[in-house]
Design a protein that fits this description.
Layout: H1 6-19, H2 37-47, H3 54-64, E1 70-71, E2 74-75, H4 78-85
Antiparallel strand pairs: 1-2
Helix pairs in contact: 1-3
The structure holds iron/sulfur cluster.
């Protein structure tokens, strides 16, 4: 059985973007997608809106259980997720 992961699909999509001379918002700026707390990460979430691999990025986060930083336009940091669920963030 051949299983393709969201990570493999994302890696392929990013390679294709590079080959096309294109880019994506967090390219080369990964640290900003993880640091700065809820307010800064909420700003970073907006930068993902136009990303052509946004859906795949979110699928990777789901697949890998990512609980830190912004993935697919959503801050997955566990603390922030809890605050959002309570309507605090
Ligand atoms: S959707 Fe994912 S790959 Fe695209 S800018 Fe946001 S974090 Fe980066």
């Amino acid at each position: 059985m051949f299983v393709v992961s969201a990570r493999a699909d994302l890696d392929t999509a990013l390679i294709e973007l590079v080959e096309q001379g294109s880019t994506w918002p967090c390219a080369g700026e990964g640290e900003r997608w993880y640091e700065g707390g809820p307010v800064k990460l909420a700003e970073v979430e907006k930068e993902c809106v136009g990303c052509s691999v946004r859906e795949l990025c979110g699928l990777v986060a789901d697949e890998e259980g990512q609980r830190f930083g912004v993935w697919g336009g959503t801050d997955r940091t566990a603390e922030h997720v809890r605050l959002r669920a309570r309507g605090v963030a």
